[in-house]
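Reviewer 2 asked us to include a model.

Predict the structure of this chain.
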Amino acid sequence: MKRICMMLIMVLALGFAATANAADIDLAKKSTLNSILKSGELRCGIASGYIPFQMTDKKGRIVGFEIDLAREMAKAMGVKFVPVNMEFDGIIPALLTNKIDIITAGMTVNQERNLQINFAEPFMVVGQTVLLNKKLEGKIKSYKDLNKPEYTIVSKLGTTGEQAAKRFIPKAKYKSFDLETDAALEVLNGKADAMIYDLPFNAIFMAEQGEGKLVFLDEPFTYEPLGWGISKGDPDFLNFLGNFLHQIKNDGRYEKLYNKWFESTAWRKNM
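Predicted model (structure tokens):
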């Protein structure tokens, strides 16, 4: 009797294993990785204008730090890199309707977005900083000092800069722009008092156009990891992205690209 029970247990175990294996195979077949490899293209959702992550140069080419990372990813897959440029607030809907395979748009990982999509591990961590009109130098020493009705704050529509401005500086007047450059120029021209935005963009804008006109409060007051977004229910693609990012960060490629876009300004001559 005991022997029969053991045999039944083994049969059931094998049955469960076969079912689980079949489910795993079915899930793998549905992975975005398969559709990418079959099409021979990696469709990356981007929002050109986020310096120096993704930009359009003089010749109309999409370039930037994150663009180069995505190119390396496509190369690792053996497929063509296809940037799909669109407005930032339309990128998640584009992913959910299969118009793109992955979001590579300098997107901050947060809980609200994570309810809709999955994120690979962060490829960089940034935070919100303040670009301040020169007239307020000495008077404003922290983002907290801007929390008054007399000040006008700007940022880019649909970004965590906008969220931070509304959350941390609710008493100030707020105005949004489709492009971060337009928002920064509003402060530069004295039409707004301060811009709340990511450290990389603010640092570059300050270096190039802000001398004598702006004050850069460069200590981030938020923690914001940037990550690539994919559709939910795709562990195979998520696994690939994790391994790719570990590899590129440890074989010198990531450092080389970082130095190209953040430690040097040579690329600016082509913009």
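The first helix runs from residue 2 to 29. The mean pLDDT is 90. We have added this to the supplementary material.
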